[in-house]
Amino acid sequence: MNAVITGASKGIGKAIAEKLAAEGFNVMICARGAASLEAAKEAIQQKNPAVTVTAVSVDMGDKAQVLAFAQQVKSTFDTVDILVNNAGIFIPGALHEEADGLLEKLMAVNVYSAYHLTRALLPAMMARRSGHIFNMCSTASHHAYPNGGSYSITKYALLGFSKNLRRELTGNNIRVTSISPGPTLTASWDGFEAAPDRMMPPEDIAGVVWSAWSMAPQTVVEDITLRPMLGDI
User: Fold this and answer.
1) Whole-angstrom distance, CA of residue 166 vs CA of residue 161
2) Rounded distance, CA 156 to CA 111, Å?
3) pLDDT tens, 204-225?
4) Going from the N-terminus, what domains does the chain have, and what CATH number goes with each?
5) Which among 112, 115, 145, 151 is annotated as catalytic?
């Protein structure tokens, strides 16, 4: 079995890659930072010597690089059983105050990367009539909040993409799941002072990915929302 996880050098993406590798999946991971990506690859491979771990440095905000990555996936794997569109950038701020061009930058990474990579890998899934696509949305995909800005706009868009994809693939035996975590203990929250137990561990997000994948073939978990016990921060 093979899985592709974007934005997997740390945080939620890395936790998902670790979980899938531990369950026997060969994994291909990507991220922009080559050093942290290589460190993630080595850590996952060391824990799971029986599987193949491949890492590719990709700027997911660059369409050409995303499409080139898709070709590398096709060259490496005969099949893609799980695709996790996790790459994203979290930059809070009010719409009237944020820098010009931020919306375009966040759309490219948070939405267009999932769109282009999914479109490139989907034909083979459809031909086999199997596969599971996970789109990493956010609680910001469901409710507006102060200082959500362009980030929140992109997460709303990603959820719309995911829901539309689910409807399109209903008859193709391909599962699509939207996952919407609230505050999770990842690098996106570096500098924000909160007790570690006030935030969710990324391993919990990885756990729900595995649970959704493990359902009977005729069962699809369409939407998953996770929040800290005490609510969003």
Assistant:
1) 9
2) 10
3) 999 999 999 999 999 999 999 9
4) 2-226 (3.40.50.720)
5) 151
175 CB-near residues (< 8 Å, 6+ apart): 131, 132, 133, 169, 212, 220, 221
Residue 145: its pLDDT value, please? Answer: 84
Measured CA to CA, the distance from residue 158 to residue 153 in angstroms comes to 9
Give the bridge partners for 224, in sequence order.
179
**CA angle, 181 as apex, 32 and 95 as ends, to 5°?**
70
Residue 151 falls in the annotated catalytic set:
yes
Q: How far apart are alpha carbons 139 and 144 in whole angstroms?
A: 9
Beta bridge partners of 15: none
118 C-beta neighbours (distance < 10 Å), count: 19
Q: Mapping DSSP to helix (H, G, I), strand (E, B) and coil, where does residue 96 land?
A: coil
Position 194 scores a pLDDT of: 66
pLDDT of residue 99: 92
Percent of the chain with pLDDT over 70: 96
